[in-house]
Design brief:
The protein is mostly helical. The protein contains five helices and no strands. The longest helix is centred in the middle third of the chain and has 82 residues. Helix 2 packs antiparallel against helix 3.
Length: 245
């Protein structure tokens, strides 16, 4: 009895442990989903604010907002493109590593632009704009280059796969047509052989007739008509014989 109790206790402990593990994983998954939703919501709100600031505040302040918006849009698009294509193309691992290094510069630049949004000295903002504009263009061009290369690579792979598939389909279609032509040739050959044999059998009765006398032609019956109409193809139905009377 003690052994049974120990076994039951162990089973209960294992079930409890499994339940705790499942609960922890579920909580973590829910937390990740909530964090992702909150992050996306904050990002959407920030982008909307930058768009409004870009048009509402002309001059240096509006240009700072425009630089932040273009930088964030390019970096996000490149990140999505690389992460979506990386599972199917392991060779993009190096591109992902380069993008991670580029992201560090992008975050640093975005923080500087964000600090300039609250800078009260307009002259200082105007003095910093040329350098920030150049850095933004460099980071944005690098991100766009990675994204365009990944997209071109994926499109090239799709075109190559389609070309290979089209070639295989053309070969299969040619093989099917070759099989069909052989079947037709065999059917025609069988029909020609059957016609020659029938002609030999028809000419046999008149072979022993005296010279100058022609045998009367034999009437064509329904069986003969059916034999003429049906050349003997394997996929056709056999002709139905006509009953006499």
């Amino acid at each position: 009895m003690e052994a049974v109790a120990v076994i039951v206790a162990l089973i209960f402990a294992v079930l409890v442990a499994l339940g705790v593990i499942a609960t922890v994983r579920t909580v973590r998954a829910v937390k990740r989903g909530v964090d992702r939703t909150v992050h996306q919501a904050r990002r959407t709100v920030e982008d909307t604010r930058l768009k409004a600031r870009q048009f509402a505040q002309p001059g240096a302040a509006g240009e700072v907002a425009q630089l932040r918006l273009s930088l964030r849009t390019s970096m996000r698009a490149t990140q999505d493109a690389l992460h979506s294509a990386a599972p199917e193309d392991p060779s993009l691992s190096e591109a992902l590593a380069l993008f991670q290094r580029l992201s560090a510069h992008g975050h640093e630049l975005d923080d500087e632009l964000k600090r300039l949004e609250t800078e009260p000295d307009k002259a200082r903002i105007a003095a910093r704009l040329p350098e920030l504009r150049e850095r933004t263009a460099r980071v944005k061009d690098s991100a766009d280059s990675l994204r365009f290369a990944a997209q071109d690579r994926a499109r090239r792979f799709a075109e190559d796969d389609l070309e290979t598939l089209s070639g295989q389909i053309r070969m299969e279609a040619g093989a099917l047509r070759h099989w069909s032509d052989e079947g037709m040739d065999e059917g025609i050959g069988e029909a020609a052989g059957a016609g020659a044999a029938a002609g030999g059998r028809t000419a046999a009765p008149g072979a022993g007739a005296p010279a100058g006398e022609q045998p009367e032609p034999r009437a064509i019956t329904g069986r003969d008509r059916d034999a003429w109409r049906s050349p003997g193809y394997s996929w056709q139905k056999t002709g139905r014989t006509e009953s006499a009377g």
